[in-house]
Design a protein that fits this description.
Elements (H helix, E strand, L loop, with lengths): L10 H20 L3 E2 H7 L7 H18 L9 E2 L9 H9 L10 H18 L4 H4 L10 H4 L6
Parallel strand pairs: 1-2
Helix pairs in contact: 1-3, 1-5, 2-3, 3-4
């Protein structure tokens, strides 16, 4: 059973967190990262603050994964502006959780990211062979993962 670490999180934010995890599981099965913007679009988020809402959901997932001793599913999300790495906030949260102690802008970040990405894909990408052959699109993510209803 998954530990929920923030019981006063709003219902709307909780739904976004669940939808984000469900979508990222499909992404992890593909073994390729997705950008923050592409994730926001896949989740059908609309302005204002779409990327901010995505990053909040990802940070929540990181805390939840750390509490459950699981790889960071957020590692499959990268920034176009960071040369194939997540944004600095990813490293800041990993540091606050005791998982990263290097320079968030240098080789330490790239080395750390390579390892956590591989762990995330191996752990969260456990999908059927059929799912691995499909591109993660809105159409092939379960309806309950796209709707404003809980998926777990």
């Amino acid at each position: 059973m998954m530990t929920v670490i923030c019981s006063n999180y709003s219902t709307q934010a909780s739904r976004l967190v669940r939808r984000t995890r469900a979508y990222l599981r499909v992404v992890a099965a593909q073994g390729r990262p997705i950008t923050y913007r592409a994730l926001a679009q896949a989740l059908e988020l609309h302005p204002p603050h779409t990327i901010h809402r995505v990053t909040e959901a990802l940070e929540y997932l990181m805390r939840e994964d750390a509490a459950n001793e699981q790889p960071f599913i957020a590692a499959v999300v990268i920034s176009r502006a960071s040369n194939g790495l997540p944004a600095r906030g990813f490293f800041d949260v990993a540091r606050s959780l005791g998982h990263f102690d290097g320079d968030a802008t240098g080789l330490d970040a790239a080395t750390f990211y390579k390892a956590v990405f591989a762990d995330a894909v191996a752990f969260w990408g456990k999908a059927s062979a059929h799912d691995r052959c499909r591109q993660p699109t809105r159409a092939n993510v379960p309806v309950e993962s796209r709707a404003n209803v809980p998926v777990e």
